[in-house]
Design brief:
Largest sheet of chain A: 8 strands, parallel, barrel
Oligomer: homodimer
CATH architecture of the largest domain in chain A: Alpha-Beta Barrel
Distance between the termini of chain A: 43 Å
Shape of chain A: globular
Number of strands of chain A: 8
CATH superfamily of the largest domain in chain A: Aldolase class I
Order of helices and strands of chain A: HEHHEHEEHEHEHEHEHHHHH
Strand content of chain A: 5-15%
Helix content of chain A: 40-55%
């Protein structure tokens, strides 16, 4: 604030900015993005210096009806190639798979046949063994891998440490702190960075952070993690994502103030593509999301409340706390 | 996060929640609030356990045309009494005066004749002497006083420390960190807490925080200050305030989780009074406010940009950085 000393320190630290707009934002609109949206976002990310762009989920067509979702729910090789060609850019391409929602053995190509660079495996802590298996499979196929432990705010410390022990011994390159419910405060995030770091660093893993904006803390939590040495930082344009959404990519890029990143391409993308999209899809901070964040419950309750056009917040508070509050 | 240990610690610490909705929110709508709004807000604050309610500014009618502002720009004794009567509640009543915008000697009643409890004197650091005089005057008239040093993100350390030296020797009960431009990060706030504390605590002063939401950090910055021992925490319902607005009162009350505070009355107030108001007045995070926050310039530029229905963010970025960025 008083001088630029700390900027020099930042520049020497490694960081990877991950744009998850198509993936987490896709949850908002069932992955039905307008024609040309993915392509324009890819170009904006390339121009902005974003390190990794997540195109969506890779899930099984046997488990999800493909007439009910846009193409980024499935992330076929040809869908991604239709946007990136051979991807002769510095942007790495990732997809996410949830434990239990895909049989990777029938879906994952050998790395040399794919433009995908990174598989991110999402799992609850109780699914750590299965997650580690999926990570191993993708790793063996030649991919960079992450393991994203969801809804960590609901874990007790013992369950979390058990999961971390398993995942830290897997070949995952990065282990993610995921605040699915937008329930955590910067202090919690910093504590989690220590807990994760203790398990992860001795195996040479990096850490990542994926935050939600229920309490308008997604950006604050992301930069708190960054200050603790977390290197993989998830964000989405305009914070587009389930419920209250995510860390705003434009805030994060602005904050980092590194020559490698440029804000202007993202500002142009916001004007040209996000502002029209906002008229068709709804996400971002609202009172019911604040309440699910505060009381550490899944945002689905708030999504349903808003879909029903309810505004009886006091009753909702009572419902989600099972009558603990009146 | 893992247990409630830290909640017990919090409860033992002193804190004063200040609702500044009428005052900072009044900047958005020239203090023209709907009939009954102030009264309903007062009742909600009483029921919620809010410690201090700021009714507005006290400025000189000679300097501001009273046909162009609602009554909370002037905060006459009878206006406040029409809402609070003799204020036989636990809520303390404050008003704000800016250095140079009022001759307090013609405006301030002896405390025993007034329902106002607190005068908050707002000044830039270069106006510290004048601020200290105004504080002394209000103190001598029997009031609790604060001095709010505005736009601290633009001060160099020497100017700030000079101002703090002057204000710390004044009779001000509380010295406020004010991030007028929404430019500071939690780390900056924590550094400022140390700088302010070093000057203030030896004279028995308390510290306060007033944050703006340009980078969606108003709440994060407020709780960062709280963690550093800052006791006076400003917020507004739905974050209503100039430009990107302020720390959300409902987030803050929810966060504190103290028996003295109740969220439900604020939730009812949001539904009944803020949601209609949102259709008439505009505030809150938007891209131009992010940019003025990032580049530490006054939000007026962003307010004008939005009023002109402009969306050429890249040009705006260029303008506010005087061409440093292109």
């Amino acid at each position: 604030m008083f001088d630029t000393e700390d900027i020099d320190i930042q520049i020497t630290r490694d960081v990877k900015v991950v744009d998850a707009t198509l993936r987490d934002g896709g949850i908002v609109n069932s992955f039905y993005f307008p024609e040309g949206f993915a392509s324009a976002l890819y170009k904006a990310n390339v121009a902005a210096g974003v390190d990794i762009m997540e195109f969506g989920y890779k899930v099984s067509r046997k488990m999800f009806d493909e007439t009910k979702f846009g193409i980024w729910k499935f992330c076929d090789e040809q869908s991604i190639r239709s946007v990136v060609g051979e991807n002769r850019t510095d942007v790495k391409i990732s997809v996410m798979s949830d434990v239990g929602r895909v049989d990777l053995k029938s879906e994952v190509l050998q790395k040399e046949k794919s433009v995908i660079d990174i598989y991110r495996i999402a799992a609850y802590s109780r699914q750590a063994e299965e997650a580690a298996e999926m990570v191993s499979y993708c790793h063996d196929m030649g991919y960079f891998t992450t393991c994203n432990i969801m809804a960590v705010s609901r874990d007790d410390r013992q369950s979390l440490e058990r999961a971390l022990d398993i995942i830290a011994r897997s070949p995952a390159d990065v282990i993610y702190i995921v605040d699915s419910f937008g329930s955590l405060y910067p202090d919690d995030i910093m504590l989690l960075c220590d807990i994760y770091g203790e398990k992860a660093y001795k195996y040479g893993k990096k850490l990542g952070i994926h935050a939600h904006n229920n309490q308008q803390l997604a950006f604050a939590n992301t930069i708190a993690a960054y200050a603790k040495g977390v290197e993989y930082l998830d964000a989405t344009v305009c914070g587009m994502g389930r419920g209250a959404g995510n860390c705003y990519l434009e805030s994060l890029i602005g904050y980092l103030r590194r020559p490698a990143y440029r804000l202007e391409p993202l500002l142009a993308f916001v004007r040209e593509h996000m502002e029209p999209l906002r008229k068709q899809a709804s996400w971002g901070y609202d009172v019911p999301y604040l309440l699910t964040g505060l009381y550490n419950v899944h945002p689905y309750a708030a999504i349903d409340f808003l879909k029903a056009d309810r505004t009886d917040y006091e009753n909702f508070l009572h419902e989600i706390t099972n009558g603990e509050k009146k």
